[in-house]
Specification:
mainly alpha, Growth Hormone, Chain: A, two-stranded antiparallel sheet, MFS_sugar_transport-like, Transporter, MFS_trans_sf, carboxylic acid transmembrane transporter activity
């Protein structure tokens, strides 16, 4: 394969001074790949499509709650700003409430001061909300390396030519549907409350978020570990971190940086889209249902990007799909920034929603769909959980940085509402162009059998450098699990 030969050469040059042995694609390895691919294509277990899909659904669909929880806070912030006015505007929670969930894995990084409690019960409530958002972030952070990695490994048992599509539909597409429902529910609640009972609107919108993660809780207990994990797990083996870093360090850096840039933009815009719309409308007269309604329309544009873009990842490959999608997103972003003075008028809010929606949709077709595929499939099964977890964590760091600094980017526009709205698009679009370049030149091709290929390549690399690969695999009765003859 092209990616293997290219990687082997790059690694040989990089590690020559350390005398690290990098195995080439010898005939036995190629034969093993062919046998593995044939076995996977033949579906030897005789499972129906639903039986093959169920583990992918169970593992990936929990990410729906991530999309809902992270997006609904944008509408909540809009309501709080209207309900509490200057108290909200002067509180520390204004800056960190939307972002704090992204720092859930970093204990102690709460960005509010207890000294503000003297201002009244409202500010104390803002701080309590911020604390609980932090703990919500811990749960979301645990979902990524567990659910997504398992879904990626389970997708290897599906039919060739569709594996990336199914993985995307039940991971990133779930997040995007969560975004949509996270925008729609506040609209629905606001309509039921006749745009007046602000307390009911934001509390109900937040509370509904508990339903989604609980719905899949029981189902997860009945899912078995995928075959690749059983054969190549390092659960009972010593992880050779030095060798892992030498083989995958550069890939991990590139994938993580692309994920950082994507989340920096995607989560920031999803959270602040309702605020952007509120600035277009006269916030003193436009009802919440109008603002939240258009916010729902904008979020709906995620769906064609992710749903239609999923099979594109199988046709073009994740690397090319990501690079092309994010480059086109950057182009649209620059156009939108330049045309913003004409688009940002109440009479043209429909045009604004469409252009902004296309911007969001291209982001999903590109990095939204494919960064998870690349993070899950550019390394071996034995280290996939840690590799993916690091990449996802750095991505969430980008989300935190973006949602935290976006208000400052907006503020840099001064008194000009036009400049304040243009600057985020300029920053985001520049990041899109950088992501496209990093992906095109720094990420290997990912094919239908890359998971199996990487396991073969990783095992050969470890053996060439003196590591005992007999330790790999899950154990039963004290012995290493060996694949049974079919």
């Amino acid at each position: 394969m092209k990616e293997d030969s290219a990687d082997s050469g790059a690694l040989s040059d990089h590690t020559a001074s350390r005398k690290i042995l990098i195995p080439s694609d010898s005939p036995p390895i190629l034969a093993q790949r062919e046998n593995t691919s044939a076995a996977m294509t033949a579906n030897p277990n005789g499972k129906t499509l639903w039986q093959q899909l169920l583990p992918v659904v169970a593992c990936g669909a929990g990410l729906f709650s991530d999309g809902y929880i992270n997006n609904v806070i944008g509408s909540v912030v809009t309501v709080l700003a209207i309900q509490y006015g200057d108290i909200w505007a002067n509180s520390t929670a204004k800056t960190c409430l939307g972002a704090i969930a992204f720092v859930g894995t970093v204990v102690g990084q709460l960005l509010f001061g207890t000294g503000t409690y003297y201002k009244g019960d409202a500010v104390g409530m803002f701080n309590v909300l911020t604390v609980w958002r932090f703990f919500v972030g811990i749960g979301i952070g645990g979902e990524y390396p567990a659910g997504s990695v398992a879904a990626a490994e389970q997708s290897g048992e599906l039919k060739k030519g569709t594996r990336n599509m199914w993985f995307i539909w039940f991971t990133n597409s779930m997040i995007d549907w969560g975004f949509v429902i996270g925008a729609f529910v506040p609209w629905l609640v606001a309509a039921a409350a006749h745009n007046t009972n602000y307390e009911t609107i934001w509390r109900t919108s937040l509370g509904i978020g508990v339903v989604f993660p609980l719905s899949l809780f029981v189902l997860r207990f009945f899912i078995k570990e995928p075959e690749e994990f059983q054969k190549h797990s390092m659960k009972y083996a010593r992880t050779p971190y030095k060798l892992v870093f030498q083989l995958y360090g550069w890939r991990l850096f590139i994938v993580s940086f692309i994920w950082f840039l994507y989340d920096f933009s995607a989560y920031s815009f999803s959270i602040y889209s309702s605020t952007i719309l509120a600035n277009i409308f006269d916030s003193t007269s436009a009802p919440l249902t109008t603002v939240f309604g258009w916010n729902t329309v904008i979020n709906l544009f995620y769906i064609p990007g992710t749903m239609i873009g999923a099979p594109v990842s199988d046709w073009l490959g994740p690397r090319k799909a990501l690079a092309v999608g994010v480059l086109l997103q950057g182009v649209v972003g620059f156009i939108m920034a330049g045309c913003y003075p004409s688009l940002a008028q109440p009479g043209l809010v429909g045009a604004f929603a469409v252009v902004f929606g296309v911007f969001q949709s291209l982001g999903e077709l590109g990095p939204g769909n494919n960064i998870g595929v690349l993070a899950a499939k550019t390394c071996a099964t034995g280290v996939r959980g840690q590799y993916y977890g690091v990449a996802a964590a750095i991505g969430k760091l980008g989300a935190f940085v973006g949602t935290y600094v976006f208000p400052f980017i907006v503020k840099a526009g001064g008194e000009s509402k036009t400049l304040s709205a243009q600057y985020p698009f300029y920053v985001s679009s520049a990041g899109c162009v950088l992501s496209a370049a990093l992906c095109w030149f720094g990420v290997p091709e990912v094919g239908q059998d890359t998971i199996q290929d990487e396991d073969v390549r990783f095992k050969a690399f470890l053996e060439a450098n003196g590591y005992d690969t007999a330790q790999l695999g899950l154990r039963k009765d004290g012995s290493v699990l060996v694949e049974e003859p079919k």
